[in-house]
Amino acid sequence: MSLSVSLRAFDSLALTALVGAALCSLGSAQSSQRIIGLTRNAPFVVSQDVNTCNVGICPVALPPSSTLAGFVGGTAHDPRDRGTFVSNGLQMAKIDVRSTACMPLCPVLPVPNTTPNNPVTGMAYNETTNTLFITDASNIIRWYSVAGGCQLTLINRCIAPISAVEILTGCATDDLNGLIFYSAVVPGVVGGRVYVAPQTNPCAILCAHPILQCGANPMAPLTGLAFDTCTRTLWATDGRMSVAHNFDSTTCTLFPQVQCCINTSGDPYVGLCILPPTEASAGPSCTSLPCPSCPTMRHALRGDPSIGNPAFALELNNAPGGTAAWLVLNLGPCAGPGVLAPPLCAPILVPFAPPWLTVGPIGTGGAVGTCSGNLSLSFPIPLSPMFCGLTVSTQYIGLCGGPGTFVSNCLSWTIGST
Length: 418
What we know:
Helix content is about 5%, strand content about 45%. It is mainly beta.
C-alpha cells in the first residue's frame, strides 16, 4: 500500500519561501542538464553534459531509423515519469535514459497516423498540457494527448507553411511562453531554418531564423532541436554537432551562438531534447528498535524536478509500516556531518540554516512491524522561471513508538526544465 498525500498548498508556499531565502542569502545553484538524442544506426540514446559535452550512452530496443536523407527519428522527454520518447520514424518507445540499459517504460508501438511516406522527423513534449508534438516528412505537424505511457490520441494537425523544397526535421517547445520551434532543411544545403509559432496554432509562424554553423564549422542539414526553458537556450543539431543559441521570446530574437558540442559517439543524432539535472543521494538509511530493520528503505523522487511538472513528488519507500514520518527540507545540497538529534538513529543532512521546513506527521501506511510503509508527497512545481536553478535537499525522519526512530537517505535536487 502506498499513501499519497497532496501538498498543493504547501508546495507553493514552501518553494516561494525557499526562493525568497535563496535570493536574500544563499543564492541558487544549477547542476548540469544534458542534451539527449536518439542515434540513427545502432540505435543508442546519447546524452551530453551541456557544460562539458561529455557523453553517456545506452542502447534502445528499436530498429535503426530509415534513411530518408538521414532526417527520420525524434526524441522528447517526459519529466512526469522521467521517461524519454524515442522514435525511429515508424515506431516509438519510452525509456529511462538514466539507466545503463535504457530500461523500457512502455513497449515499442507503431506511431499513429504514420506511414513510410510520412515518417516521424521530430518530437517535443509539453508536460503542463500533456501534449506530444510530432513533425513528419510530409511537412505535417501533429499533436496528441498522452495516456498510459505511449498511448496517443490525436488532437489536431496542420501543414507547416514552409517552402516546397524544405523538409521538417525536428521540433522543440518553450512551455513557459507556449511556443513551438521546428526546423526545416533543404537536402544537401548547409544548416537549416528554425521556425517559431504558438503551440495553440503551430502553423501560424511568428518568426524564422537560419542556423548554419557550430563554432566556425558549417553544419550539415539540421536533424533535431531542443529548448531549455530555464536558460532560454535553443539547441540545434545536424547529428554530428549541436549548437546553442539564446532566444528572446518577447521579441522572437535568436542571438549568436553560445556553445558548440561535438557528438563523439560516432553515430549521428536524429532527434534532440533536454534531460533535467539528476538528484544526488547522501547518507545511509537506518532504523532503531522497536522499528523493524528496513535495509531497502529509500527516499526517492517521482518524476523530474522540472518547472511546470505537475506530477513531481517526494517518496519514501519500504519504510516501517503503520508509523509517522516527517519530511525535512531546505536550501542547498545535503552535507555532513549534519545534525544528530537524539534519539534519531542518524544525522539530518539537510542544511540547518536558514531554519528547516518540516511537513508532518504523515502516516506511512502498511502494517506495523513490517517494512511495508510507502508514501508519496505530491509536490507540483509551478511553471515559473523564479524556481530555475534552485537546489533543495530533502530527507525523511520518523517514529515507531517509544525510542524507535528511522531516518532516510538525504536527496539533493536542482530544479531545471525540459
